[in-house]
Write a structure and sequence with these properties.
This protein is an alpha+beta fold. The chain contains three helices and eight strands; from the N terminus they run αββαββββαββ. The chain folds into two domains: 39 residues; 151 residues, Multidrug-efflux Transporter 1 Regulator Bmrr, Chain A (Alpha-Beta Barrel).
Length: 204
């Protein structure tokens, strides 16, 4: 009888501890999400397979440029950037941003791509002594966008960029900045065909 009472007491204590820890984790996650939304560093994804014009707010990235002619280094760059960001006390903010040199970039092009992770506004990050990393600031601009689902490769991104280019020709619009790819599901367990991305081109 005594053992049953002790076991029951410990079960209740364990349940209470699980609830408290779970609530604290949820609160932390919610607070971090709210902070990220307030800072404008989380890019909400648009409607899939539909071209939209957005006013994208200014943002900052901690970035690194590498030659990646077949987009095979996405995960490697994401791990390196996330390691740097978390080592400086920041939470990892999605999405990962990949900037192309221009709209003429295609696979096998040996010009470097810029990989970056968003940073909270008005926060500094120390990258002294790490010459391969740098900070990027992008001003607020009208931006042509299309969201897609599919594997993170040029078979998914290439046709979507062609749609944006066709829209620009038909609407007398010209790019004012580098095209970029926003990757939302690098770490998700989603099937490749359901991975989400958004392609953006700053325009006027």
């Amino acid at each position: 009888m005594y053992e049953k009472i002790v076991n029951s007491v410990f079960s209740v204590i364990g349940f209470v501890l699980i609830c408290v820890v779970g609530f604290q984790m949820y609160s932390c996650t919610e607070e971090q999400r709210k902070n990220n939304e307030r800072s404008g560093t989380v890019f909400p994804i648009g409607a899939f397979d539909r071209i939209e014009m957005k006013q994208v707010q200014s943002f900052r990235l901690v970035a690194r440029s590498v030659v990646d002619p077949d987009l095979s280094r996405l995960r490697e760059m994401d791990v390196l950037l996330a390691r740097l960001v978390t080592s400086r006390g920041f939470g990892r903010i999605k999405p990962m941003v990949v900037e192309l040199p221009d709209l003429n970039w295609k696979p096998l092009d040996n010009r470097p791509l810029t990989y970056g992770l968003p940073l909270p506004e008005e926060q500094s990050i120390r990258i002294s002594g790490l010459p391969e990393y740098f900070l990027v600031t992008r001003e607020a601009r009208p931006t042509l966008c299309i969201a897609v689902r599919g594997p993170y490769n040029w078979d998914t991104f290439g046709p979507a960029f062609l749609k944006l280019e066709e829209w620009m020709r038909e609407n007398n619009t010209v790019p004012t900045g580098k095209p970029r790819i926003l990757l939302y599901d690098l770490h998700s367990f989603s099937p490749a065909d359901w991975k989400k991305a958004e392609l953006q081109i700053p325009v006027r």
